[in-house]
Amino acid sequence: MLVKQQRSLFFLLLFIAAAASAQPDGAEIMSNNFSATKVSGFVGEVTLSLINDRGEQRVRKMSVRSRLRDNGTDSAVLTRFSQPADIRGTGFLQVENSAAEDDIWVYLPALGKTRRLSSNNKRDSFFGTDFSYGDILLPAVDKYRHTLLRRDRIEDSDCFVVESTPLDARTREDTGYSRKLNWVDAQSFVERKVEYYDSQNALLKTQTTFDVRAAQLDPGRWMPMRRQMTNHQTGHRTLYQFDRFEVSKSLKDAEFIARRLEDQ
Question: What is the model's pTM?
Fold first, then answer.
């Protein structure tokens, strides 16, 4: 009888160990999340709706294009506003550099020149929205400590809940976040919800994604057609919505250089 009990205990422990090994850890989940929306290239038209705590709304229109660079890791994204008239022609370019700081430029037509942003500008508002410049592309995975907390559901999605904490003071200062909680879809690895906590560890913002579509089959890539960022401390929110989204493999690196921002 004792031998049977020991054998049963052995197989139970073996089963538990196998189940644990099948569960990805926090860093692996966030690495998959970083890659999940890395479409080889796309072009699109976006409506930005800025909504204050009284429900009053301002609408902006912009074009956006993005290309996955040849290293298969870093992306470049170029955005240009078309509406309203007072910001028409304003441009934004961000080029990821996995081995260094991202290159970020802003073009303001009124000044007639392109300005490069420093890393501590990442916490600034993206043209008056509730997204910061640093929120436009996902941050490098290795700049954070990632801890898998639990599993949860967002609408019909089974999600991993991962806490991401900056590894150093500079990352905290550049982003303005002391930590993030990420609800990552267990199938697509797209973030369905992200909570951002300020330097005092108070909830600052929540981002939610909607209408996540398969954008590319090989490798499997996805794209949310809508994102909403809500600032809990101001009551303001921003809805980022694709009116048009098309995968494009014809984009070239030469289209993602600073001087192209000044092309009209």
Answer: 0.88
